[in-house]
Amino acid sequence: MPRIQTTAELEALRAEILAARDPAKPCIAVCGGAACDGLDSAAVATAFAAEIAKQGVAAKVDFRVTGCHGYCNKGPNVLVGPDDVCYFEVKPDDVPEVVESALKGVVVDRLVYRDPASGEKAVHLSEVPFYKHQMRILTGDIPRIDPTRIEDYLAVGGYSALAKALSQMSSDQVLQEVKKANLRGRGGGGFPAGLKWETTKNAPGKTKYVIVNGHEGESAAFMDRAMLTGNPHKVLEGLIIGGYAIGAQQGYIYTRHDSPSMARHITAALEQAQELGLLGENILGSGFDFEVELHFDVGIFVSGESSALMRSIEGNAPEPRPKYIRTSVSGIWDKPSNLNNVETWANVPEIINRGADWFTSIGSEKSKGTKLVSLSGHVVNSGVVEVPMGTPLRTIVFDIGGGVPDGGAPKAIHFGGAMGRSIPISMIDAPLDFDGMSKLGAPIGAGGLLVMDENTDMIEMARYLLDFLVKESCGKCTPCREGMYQMLKILSNIIEGKGRKFDLERLAELTEVTSLGSLCALGKTSSDPLKSMLRYFKPEFEARIAAGSAAGSEAK
Amino acid sequence: MSGTIVQITLQIDGKEATVAAGTTVLKAAQQIGVAIPTLCHHEKLEDYGGCRLCLVEVESRGRTNYVVSCLYPVENGLVVRTRSEKVDKVRRLIIEELMAHAPDAPELVRLAYEYGADRNRFEKEAAFCVMCGLCVRYCDEVKQKRAVGFIDNGHAREISFIPEIAAKECWNCQECFAICPTSYAQAAYLLTEALAFPGRRKKESTPREAEEGRMANIPAVPMTFVRRPPAAKPEMAN
Fold it and tell me: ipTM of the assembly?
């Protein structure tokens, strides 16, 4: 493909791509997301390619392997356009029938969704309960895109926001739009992205960096991987726009080394964007130069902490640095560095394209836009969910998630993975947004949402999460390294029936000192799950300790 | 360029301190004679912030925060309290956590007394190392040899001499032994020596041993491990 020099050339290329496509033509999209891949969707995809070749219908039906459709436990997912017919749990044997039906414009009845209770059918994406209650602004395009082909992204309007920003807006105007949209960081803190951008923009020095934090490492979180693997160009477009607004010349995408398809897709996206001239010198003739480099972690959870991440990009061990000087002022090689998470960047093109007013019309009072959630645990439907901020948890757990399997009752909801917190199910009518959840003492974190049923042992749960963090602590500072270890020992003792009366008091002191004294966010929040469990489920701990000591004295 | 240094005035435990901008709170406190306990801090090394013992309470623009003084830069009008109920609580627990590993380290024993820490609060797992990283950082930053490093992470973290480098560099140096608060650096080195390049100690003295007039063949023993002979009973005067 020739390098694009101007915005007009970009639009001409887009028109050319669209002209070659027939919107009424059937299109089969096989999900190649992580969960479907695990259910061998690759075999299904191979079968489709073979079947289309065998029937000689390549001209009559489009076929592509895409990123994650979202409905993970029903995989392998297949979506047939143009009407978005959803097929679930598709096997290679089903493939000939799906191809024939797609050509005829009919539906394979046995593969569509059926309500487990009523048996009622749902054929199209907009009717399936799991999708019906969502608002898929960021993820909606994923089933329409082969992530390794930039043409597919251009076909859904990709890079039009970048063109708009570079040709019609000054860097200040872009910044103002993001500030006005009140886009808050999706990585967990909920800090306004516009303010963070402004700090880096105004920080002294010419060399500045913008970074995508794609290091999603915590348990029960898989939405960023779905986003970055399924639509890497959207995140990249956001990053380039951010680079323009902030005045950075270099961007980094920092991600995990252990997800081969994600690495492949990002690498391809960077190459194609470079080839088209959407990266490099004088992008779209605007005079703005910008390069992006992909950087992998070394397989340790704390790499996702902002200062550790920057140390890692510098080529050092990913040990957190104390942040008395913010990384937005002094980050990579002590240069101002703006770090945002995958989902935050993915929002940027939408905000530029549709405007801050559109963005602020979605969501709750202080949390705007949508939120990606990784829904898992004791729920009927699990997967990647996108809902407007402020959606009641009940909608997510029951309407989208379908409640607890086998008619069980939920007991608690856990947010934010290993450093997140649990709330009892009595709070299920609370809205999912930054402030609402913080008020309940369970900030939404990055978006991992784990439902736990009535049989869940909360002490075991606390122990499990702490065990993960003990292994992931870097070990530099005492409160994190020693404090968590001692907490884990106490919890293990309680579980083994060797708990003692003063254990709860010791746990309270350890959680307090660990969060007060630790160096980085990992240590500071490491005891959050335990704190929330001691806050809402203390009687369980007391009962277990009492039972343990009763059993102990009997044994004597 | 004129060499004017920007001066910052802050308050530490009620005393006023005026120091150069960029100074840490710990250094400012030391300048006006306010003592803050440290374990991983060393004049010759980059500030590290690992042990967290030097945690203090700071008040700035109406907000109270807990920060480590060895890293926190001074600000105009900053109010620092080096002792408070919470600060003491953090320090006490840290001392207790470390004493599970090095119950007899002289500095910890002294601090435990000062802060009322219970050396038996947590079950003993004597590893003797408190992970202050002084040996690792001294070898890297001052000697630039990197003969000793951290291996593993979290609670499994430990220091380890790298045999290939240690065999070449350590014999003539051994300077990290003196800055180790628990004598573990020396023990770790002797272990490496015994496993990786035994025999030399039997034949020759290290330069330090020679200087101190000690004989070869006698392993160096840290002072803390030497039992004093009981004082001779005074003769009873009949």
Answer: 0.85
